[in-house]
Design brief:
Layout (H helix, E strand, L loop, with lengths): L3 E3 L7 E5 L3 H6 L1 E7 L6 H9 L8 E8 L3 E2 H13 L3 E3 L19 E3 L1 H6 L4 E3 L3 E3 L2 E7 L3 E2 L8 H21 L4 H8 L7 E2 L2 H7 L1 E2 L1 H11 L3 H17 L5 H29 L1
Helix pairs in contact: 2-3
Length: 275
Amino acid sequence: MFSILLGSAAHSASISYSCNLEIERLIRGCSIVLSGPIEKGDASRFKDVLKRPLPEGWSYNDLILDSMGGEVDEAIAIAKMVKEAVLKTTTIDARWKLKEIKPTTRLFFPCVSACFLVWVAGAERFSYQTVEKGEKVGLGLHRPFFSSSTYRDSPSVVADKQARLMLEVRSYLKGEQIPDSLIDKMMHRSSKEIYWLDENVDGDLSGIAPWFEELLISRCDYDPAYRREQESAIVRRFNDKSARPASEEKFIKWMQAVNYCKYEIIRSAQSALRN
């Protein structure tokens, strides 16, 4: 028996959910929060949360991640459910705007190593690279490793196991369209080091996942080029303080229709998981 790790693990993750905050009522969506090391049994507990009955017409909208890593296999099992539930993954607690969140509550979290395997599975992915309360937060990477007992095997056996493990994680990340250059940086960082992404790299990974963007284009009349064009125009008009033209009203109605379609997809996917 051995464990496959990405990051240190001392206690299993805390998995909780919230449906009663003002920002969540607006979109009829709940937040799941996963914090702490990812260990054996966490995927089963995550599945139990997804199967919980929610208020009529509600669904889980996002998964807030706060973890320094843990079990690779468990993280990938959670990631599979994240994709099935069409969850947004984020290291930002958007609930900070509300009075229910105390000023001392952390706003940004670290998502390191095995946690990154979960983050990349999000239908929409968001993070923020910064330093909060003297600690780095955002996305961090290092190579996967085994529990110490595995390294008592002969050097040739260790070499073979380590190579296969790194190949497994590399293959998974390539399947999520993570660039080879970033995977290389991950594999070249020992289990005692962390490669923290910078804002430019994080920006390239954040946003709508390619598979989900194509799904929205097909089912919801989504047009990413039109969205970028109109959002840029809105920023320019805001700075100029000019009047809102009819084209902006049309864009807002279009985005509302796209979002309604998106949330219907999410609700349908999660309903299927609960049945």
